[in-house]
Request: fold
Amino acid sequence: MPVDGPQYPVNLLLAGRPCLVVGGGAIAARKAEGLLDAGGQVRVVATEVRAEVRALGVPFEERPYRPGDLDGVWLAIAATDDPAVNAAVRADGDAARVWVNAADDPASCSFTLPAVVRQGPVTVTVGTGGHSPALAAWLKGHVASELGPEVAALAGLLSEARRQVRESGGSTEQIDWRPALDWDMLALIRAGDLARARERVQACLSLS
Reply:
C-alpha cells in the first residue's frame, strides 16, 4: 500500500553522516550511490554483496541484518527482496528514531524517495507518495527536458547578487527578483550573453 498521510518534503544534508544500506544487489548499489553523491558515509550489510556494490568501494559486511546495525546511523535504506527483513529494518528504525526507506516496499518506509533532476545547485524532485514510481519517473523525464545547464548558470548569477546584497548589509527578502526570472533570461544564457543576463539581475537590486 502507498504511504498513508501527507508527506513533508525536505532536502537532507548527509555529508559526513553514517548511513546504512541493507541489501547487496543492483538496487542497493543504486541507493548507496545516491547517498555517496550526497556525501553520506555509507556502509552495506547483506547476505550476498554483489559486484555492483563492491565496485563502490564502501565498507560492507556479508551477513544477515541484525538490529544493532542501526546504532549511530542517521538514515537507512532497506533494499532486499525479503519483506520480513525490510519490515524489521523499519521497526528497528522507528525504535531507534532512524529514518528508513524500503525500496519498492512502501509499507516498510518511514520516508519515500522522489525522482530527482539536478542541474548544478538546482534540484527538482517529483514524488507520488509511493503510489507510482513509474509516474514519478515519467514526470522526471519531462522536467529534465526543460532544465538545461542555463538553469544552473542563472542560479549562479542570482547567488552572486544575493551575496553582494548581504555583504553590503542589506536584506534579500525585499528584492523583487521577477524581472530576472523568466524564459527570456534562460534564452540569453543559452545564447552565451551572460553580460546582459547579469545586467538584468543587477537591475533587480537597483529597483529594491
About this structure: The mean pLDDT is 91. The chain has seven helices and seven strands. The chain has two domains: 1-113, 149-207.
